């Protein structure tokens, strides 16, 4: 069984449920070490005192917050834990909201929220079922690793999922970050074709059909270099010009519809031919049997 990374109590109203937090995801990543170019010498990082040049042990390092130019307030780890001793074990539900109301941009990382003991299975299942029935999500706050998180707790099958979330002031304003953005597309043939293309490419969501192709290419690159083989790179696509946009949309819709129709045709003939094979064999068998009988009659005569 996986090891929990946080444990505490999920509380709403007068109800308190012991829970444990587990990682729900793991990222694909190819491990690389750093070397000095042209050598086999590893590059390693050390915690160095910039004044003395001496290496400092991890346990001897404390945190400092700059208040004015060059002046810092030093804060110990114990002091951070002392300012919220109770909240470090509490997952307090502030309110319930419609799950669809939460913009996915707020979601940060997913965790599984499991029962904290055998004696609270009923209350855990009760909350999970109630969230499923109402299509609601719980908005809560909790402290983990000296940081307060905003969280969304939702039901997913048999488990509660906790999504850590960004606070509103942590999300950047796209207008300030990107400047003037394109206005809404006017009604016209281009918009109609864009909608047709989206409809033609719409399919059922099947997450297992997607995989990390970049990591696979990195692994292939490493293997090719190990064998001394030539590495082939892909060229980046060119942007579609405004004058070519309608033509590109029309060709894309036609290709999408053709691909979907082709897939349907591939399946249909297979079923029909399978049904026709058996009668064909039977008729062939009857003909050969008839030939043998007539041949016997002729020889007897």
From TrEMBL:
Function as written in the Swiss-Prot or TrEMBL entry: With LigD forms a non-homologous end joining (NHEJ) DNA repair enzyme, which repairs dsDNA breaks with reduced fidelity. Binds linear dsDNA with 5'- and 3'- overhangs but not closed circular dsDNA nor ssDNA. Recruits and stimulates the ligase activity of LigD.
Keywords: DNA damage, DNA recombination, DNA repair, DNA-binding
Any GO molecular function: double-stranded DNA binding
Keyword match DNA repair: yes
Gene Ontology biological process terms from the UniProt entry: DNA recombination; double-strand break repair via nonhomologous end joining
Domain Ku: 53-183
Quaternary context: Homodimer. Interacts with LigD.
Family the UniProt entry places it in: Belongs to the prokaryotic Ku family.
Gene3D superfamilies registered for this protein in UniProt: 2.40.290.10
Region Disordered, residue ranges: 256-301
Name of the protein: Non-homologous end joining protein Ku
Annotated SUPFAM superfamilies: SPOC domain-like
Comp. bias regions, Basic residues: 268-301
UniProt KW DNA repair keyword: yes
């Amino acid at each position: 069984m996986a090891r929990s990374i946080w444990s505490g109590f999920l509380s709403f109203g007068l109800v308190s449920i012991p829970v444990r937090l587990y990682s729900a995801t793991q990222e694909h990543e190819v491990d690389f070490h750093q070397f000095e170019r042209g050598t086999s010498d590893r590059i390693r990082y050390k915690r160095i005192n910039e004044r003395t040049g001496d290496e400092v042990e991890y346990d001897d390092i404390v945190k400092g917050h700059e208040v004015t130019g060059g002046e810092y307030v030093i804060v110990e780890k114990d002091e951070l834990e002392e300012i919220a001793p109770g909240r470090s074990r509490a997952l307090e539900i502030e309110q319930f909201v419609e799950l669809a109301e939460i913009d996915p941009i707020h979601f940060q990382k997913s965790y599984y929220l499991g029962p904290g003991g055998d004696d609270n299975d009923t209350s855990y299942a009760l909350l999970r079922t109630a969230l499923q029935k109402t299509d609601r999500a719980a908005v809560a706050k909790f402290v983990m690793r000296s940081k307060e998180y905003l969280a969304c707790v939702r039901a997913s099958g048999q488990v509660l999922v906790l999504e850590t979330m960004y606070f509103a002031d942590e999300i950047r304003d796209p207008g300030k970050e990107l400047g003037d953005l394109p206005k809404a597309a006017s009604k016209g043939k281009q918009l109609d074709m864009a909608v047709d293309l989206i409809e033609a490419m719409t399919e059922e969501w099947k997450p297992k059909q997607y995989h990390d192709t970049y990591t696979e290419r990195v692994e292939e690159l490493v293997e090719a270099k190990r064998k001394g083989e030539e590495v082939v790179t892909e060229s980046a696509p060119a942007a579609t010009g405004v004058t070519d946009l309608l033509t590109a949309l029309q060709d894309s819709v036609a290709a999408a519809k053709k691909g979907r129709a082709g897939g349907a045709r591939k399946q249909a003939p297979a079923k029909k031919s399978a049904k026709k094979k058996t009668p064909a064999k039977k008729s062939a068998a009857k003909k050969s049997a008839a030939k043998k009988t007539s041949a016997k009659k002729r020889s007897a005569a």
